[in-house]
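hey
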């Protein structure tokens, strides 16, 4: 008898698995035709641990650093890297958290293979010791635990790595304080692009971000930037310095350095088609998600005769009598002595001059960019459909490259279905199916 269980007519018995520190109770008795004899005295055995005879086969997660946070705006990318394990031919990344959020590069997400609790899944198997994951901005925010284990065929190799935690931060994280809407221009409605104040970051991070922004924009523009300041009323950030190095933008998101891929630490402006925003990548790897903004919102609205502006990520929709304008402003501020004006350019863009010695290029945008892109992708013979930072939509139609430029003006139209139209004057237009219509042209 072993721990109260009859183990049968045997002369030896192996117990397994045994937990270190557990006490086992064993007794035996003889059995013949006359029946069972008396049982021997109970023997107690305590299971002792033993030192491993060889190295423990256990990978180590290298990046992202445990505790790293990722801002859910645009399409942030996470690179997971780990050390190799002898005997492993592939690896599986397991995670647990609020939901299944990571896309499996080798098929649908599966349940964790090694009992990792909670909602989550397993990615892989993958050869090599790294995996790049692109997050969907609608992913459930929260903290996720991640670990990796080696496999060979259908067998696990060694132990799982220690778990690391990463946090997916919602589009407006608590540690970023937005501007006070009551102090903003009353005609401006700040929606998903509600900007934040740099001084809402802790002092050390704030100074790092300011210094990094100056370094990054200096490298990007090729001219020295001497000052970076933020208007406490509107949260617009402006820079000054050498000619051609003035920028004006809303900061609307922030991603700390931890967990960024090595390819992302060169100063750059990265455009995100999905959100219409730009990520300013700084030399130390900090990322500030931003959109071009006018130096003075009130003057901007007065020049365009707008009664209201809806500010969305990467886009202004300005309400005018009988119509509206959809546009994006360039980051760069031009030096110009021109009087306040909205002046069309030959390429379909426009230049906004503020009468203060400053101006900006404005790019017309399709008022519903995802809707237009989806309709164009569904058109027969159309492939490689993309939106660009300067408001263009590029595509390949019947093997020929095309560039489409929308009009600034969005007019009203009876609600119906999404469709491409030929207007009475021969111009092209797109009906968004929701009461809005917008003309566009094909550029050479």
């Amino acid at each position: 008898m072993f721990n109260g269980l009859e183990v049968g007519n045997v002369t030896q018995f192996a117990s397994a698995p045994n937990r270190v520190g557990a006490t086992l109770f064993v007794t035996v008795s003889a059995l013949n035709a006359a029946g069972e004899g008396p049982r021997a005295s109970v023997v107690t055995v305590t299971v002792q641990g033993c030192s491993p005879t060889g190295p423990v086969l256990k990978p180590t997660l290298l990046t992202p650093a445990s505790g790293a946070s990722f801002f859910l705006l645009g399409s942030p990318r996470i690179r997971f890297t780990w050390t190799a394990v002898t005997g492993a031919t592939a690896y599986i990344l397991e995670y647990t958290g609020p939901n299944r959020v990571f896309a499996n590069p080798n098929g649908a997400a599966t349940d964790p293979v090694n009992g990792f609790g909670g909602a989550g899944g397993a990615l892989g198997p993958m050869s090599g010791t790294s995996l790049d994951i692109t997050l969907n901005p609608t992913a459930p925010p929260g903290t996720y635990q991640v670990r990796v284990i080696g496999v060979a065929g259908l067998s696990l190799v060694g132990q799982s790595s220690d778990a690391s935690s990463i946090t997916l931060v919602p589009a407006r994280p608590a540690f970023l304080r937005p501007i006070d809407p009551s102090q903003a221009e009353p005609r401006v409605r700040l929606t998903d692009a509600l900007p934040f104040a740099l001084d809402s970051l802790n002092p050390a991070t704030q100074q790092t971000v300011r210094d990094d922004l100056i370094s990054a924009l200096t490298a990007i523009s090729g001219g020295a930037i001497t000052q970076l300041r933020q208007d406490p009323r509107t949260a617009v950030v402006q820079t000054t310095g050498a000619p051609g190095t003035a920028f004006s933008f809303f900061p609307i998101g922030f991603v700390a350095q931890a967990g960024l891929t090595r390819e992302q630490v060169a100063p750059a402006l990265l455009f995100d088609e999905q959100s219409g925003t730009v990520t300013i990548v700084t030399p130390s790897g900090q990322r500030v998600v931003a959109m071009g903004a006018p130096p003075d919102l009130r003057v901007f609205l007065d020049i365009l005769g707008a009664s209201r502006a809806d500010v969305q990520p990467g886009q202004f929709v300005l309400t005018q009598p009988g119509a509206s304008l959809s546009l994006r402003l360039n980051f760069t501020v031009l030096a110009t002595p021109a009087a306040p004006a909205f002046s069309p350019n030959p390429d379909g863009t426009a230049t906004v001059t503020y009468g203060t010695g400053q101006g900006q290029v404005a790019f017309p945008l399709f008022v519903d960019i995802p809707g237009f892109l989806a309709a164009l992708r569904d058109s027969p013979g159309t492939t490689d459909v993309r939106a660009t930072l300067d408001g263009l939509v590029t595509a390949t139609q019947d093997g020929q490259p095309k560039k489409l430029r929308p009009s600034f003006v969005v007019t009203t139209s009876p609600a119906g279905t999404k469709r491409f139209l030929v207007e009475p004057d021969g111009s092209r237009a797109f009906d968004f199916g929701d009461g809005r219509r917008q003309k566009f042209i094909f550029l050479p």
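Helices lie at 203-221, 297-304, 369-377. Residues 369-443 form one domain.
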